[in-house]
Amino acid sequence: MSLSIRNQIPGTVTSVTAGEAMATVKVRLDGGQELTAAITVDAVQELGLAQGSAVRALVKSTEVALASARVEGLSIRNQLPGTVREVAAGGAMAAVRVTVDGGELTAAITKDAVADLGLSAGSPVVALIKSTEVSLATA
To answer: Fewer beta carbons within 10 Å, N or C terminal of the chain?
Structure first.
């Protein structure tokens, strides 16, 4: 199956914590970084997720925010440090490609945000992704 979701990073499930309807799934990305996904318990069961399961973390580019450094005092669980590889700016929006350990992310942000953060190839950044915006897929 082909998807329009640009961000597809491979990893391995390290833990599953289930609640009544939702579960948090921690994934060790192939580059060693940890990512948390908040998905339904039904999805955990249907995908057969357990410690050691191989998965792909899927995140739409519109759900990736960028910061110039780690952010403290924030509820966003996923903060992945990386380096800007490329900025493709349009009239109002820009696609920023960021290399992170074990993969690459694309963030769709405003052209103004690119200017405010001074982003260009080689800029260090931190990709911010809410756990509720991370989907998981199995092979």
So the answer is: N
Do the beta carbons of residue 100 and residue 80 sit within 8 Å?
Answer: yes
Please report the DSSP string for the chain in residue order. ---S--EEEEEEEEEEEE-SSEEEEEEEETTS-EEEEEEEHHHHHHHT--TT-EEEEEE-GGG-EEESS--SS-S--EEEEEEEEEEEE-SSEEEEEEEETTEEEEEEEEHHHHHHHT--TT-EEEEEE-GGG-EEE--
Residue 130's Cβ-count burial label (10 Å; 0-12, 13-18, 19+) is middle
Residues 6+ apart with CB under 8 A from 132: 38
How far apart, in whole angstroms, are the C-alpha atoms of residue 93 and residue 113? Answer: 9
Whole-angstrom CA distances from 105 to 81, 88, 99 are 11, 14, 6
Q: Measured between alpha carbons, how far is 113 from 103 in angstroms, rounded to an integer?
A: 23
State the pTM of this model: 0.93
At 134, give phi and psi (nearest 5°).
Answer: -100, 125
